[in-house]
Structures are given as C-alpha cells and as structure tokens.
Amino acid sequence: MLEPSIDDLQTKIKSKYTLVTIAAKRARQIREEDKKVLVDDPKSNKYVGLALEEIMADKLHVKNDSN
C-alpha cells in the first residue's frame, strides 16, 4: 500500500501528472546529487517515497508561471 495515499497527495497537488513528474524529478535529485531529504524522520527507504513524503509535508510545491 502506498503511503501517503494518492488521495492525500492530491489535496496538495491536484494533477496526477504533475504529482508524478515532481516526485520523479525530486527522487532523481536525491539519488544522483545526494540531496538531503527535507522531512524529519522519513518513513520510506525509497527515493520516490521520500519525495512523496516531502510533498505531503509541504516541502515541495508547484511553481505557477502565470503571466
């Protein structure tokens, strides 16, 4: 079972596509660049799980490029 749940994640980021894209990019950053995880006491051992936890903790946001 995915934790945090997709329903909970979509309260933070509405679009599933955007959610997946942000989580994948952040997971890649953590893995390749040895970036520090932005949440205290993460539950996940996997990079995507860590990225999803960061989203739930409001550490990652969608940047709006509205003109």
TrEMBL record:
GO terms for molecular function: DNA binding; DNA-directed RNA polymerase activity. Transmembrane segments: none annotated. This is DNA-directed RNA polymerase subunit omega. Keywords: DNA-directed RNA polymerase, Nucleotidyltransferase, Transcription, Transferase. The keyword Transferase applies. Promotes RNA polymerase assembly. Latches the N- and C-terminal regions of the beta' subunit thereby facilitating its interaction with the beta and alpha subunits. It comes from Lentibacillus amyloliquefaciens. Its EC number is 2.7.7.6. The RNAP catalytic core consists of 2 alpha, 1 beta, 1 beta' and 1 omega subunit. When a sigma factor is associated with the core the holoenzyme is formed, which can initiate transcription. The gene is rpoZ.
